[in-house]
Amino acid sequence: MTVSRADTVAILGAGVMGEALLSGWLRGGRDAVTVLISDRSPERLANLKDKYAVRALPAAEAAAQAATLVLAVKPQDMRALVQEISGAVGDSTLVVSLAAGITTAFLEAQLPEGTSVARVMPNTPALVDQGMSAVSPGAHCDADQLATATGLLQACGRVVALPEHHLDAVTAISGSGPAYIFYVVEAMIEAGVLLGMPRATSTELVVQTLYGAATMLKETGEHPTVLREQVSSPGGTTMAALRELDDHKVRAAFLTAIEAAARRSAQLAAGE
Ligand SMILES: NC(=O)C1=CN([C@@H]2O[C@H](COP(=O)(O)OP(=O)(O)OC[C@H]3O[C@@H](n4cnc5c(N)ncnc54)[C@H](O)[C@@H]3O)[C@@H](O)[C@H]2O)C=CC1
Ligand SMILES: O=C(O)[C@@H]1CCC=N1
């Protein structure tokens, strides 16, 4: 079967996020022949070709054969990748970057004049079709191209369009967010073990509690304060615990931590 360039998407850098998108597209019914992958690691490529039956090519060749390029390397590897593919980027190519910190202006300056670029910040729950992504258009990305970028992410979860000046904050909240939640989950599991419970039991209790609480937030649409108050009996156990969290400034620590993540995203833009 011959596949047109217009229908082809290339994932350049097929690591955690590249695979999350690839797997989401295939689960959503996209034909594997319309996806090209490229990665520096031959082992990684062999593994993905086996698992998903997609074609692998060197980055510049993949870039020449696809109308949409998803750049999914680490921010520190972005300059080298863009230099590698720049000559293969055509007039109608849409470049979609997933990298933390890397601005559309940075990419536009490295790519041929007038290249359409969209910046996206996804997160790992895309692996289970529950991703949260934000997308921002660059200077030459028109509405149709923004819709194309949005569609690629919608296959794996929800997408919001936002002005690019919010993207460092998005990176700090939803991009890195799953890690904060996993960190809290780890701490709660440890607490169960400290109280004498088998680890497997503690894990089951915590994971289902997280799932239930997330489902309540989503399905009731109630403010989290209301839902927290429903759990907090006067003079009860929950207030005893929350008082300790307040004493240990856990809320303030979250604010400071998320500010640090946003600051780090901005530093990555400067190549630090
Ligand atoms: N992991 C996460 O939770 C999220 C990551 N991101 C962003 O996604 C991007 C990718 O992150 P991960 O998937 O976590 O990284 P990763 O390290 O799992 O994947 C990056 C892949 O790029 C490959 N690579 C590096 N240079 C290359 C080149 N020149 N040509 C071809 N392949 C090359 C590496 O071999 C690696 O497999 C990063 O820029 C990150 O900021 C965004 C949101 C969430
Ligand atoms: O930690 C990072 O830099 C990437 C970006 C958002 C999540 N992971």
From TrEMBL:
It is an enzyme of class 1 (oxidoreductase). Gene3D superfamilies: NAD(P)-binding Rossmann-like Domain (3.40.50.720), ProC C-terminal domain-like (1.10.3730.10). InterPro entries: 6-PGluconate_DH-like_C_sf, NAD(P)-bd_dom_sf, P5C_Rdtase_cat_N, P5CR-like_CS, P5CR_dimer, Pyrroline-COOH_reductase. GO terms for biological process: L-proline biosynthetic process. Residues 8-101 form the Pyrroline-5-carboxylate reductase catalytic N-terminal domain. The keyword Phosphoprotein does not apply. It comes from the Bacteria. Keywords: Amino-acid biosynthesis, Cytoplasm, NADP, Oxidoreductase, Proline biosynthesis. The gene is proC. HAMAP family: P5C_reductase. Belongs to the pyrroline-5-carboxylate reductase family. It is found in: Cytoplasm. NADP(+) binds at residues 12-17, 72-75. This is Pyrroline-5-carboxylate reductase. Signal peptide: none annotated. Residues 164-268 form the Pyrroline-5-carboxylate reductase dimerisation domain. Pfam families: F420_oxidored, P5CR_dimer. It catalyses: L-proline + NAD(+) = (S)-1-pyrroline-5-carboxylate + NADH + 2 H(+); L-proline + NADP(+) = (S)-1-pyrroline-5-carboxylate + NADPH + 2 H(+). It comes from Allobranchiibius huperziae.
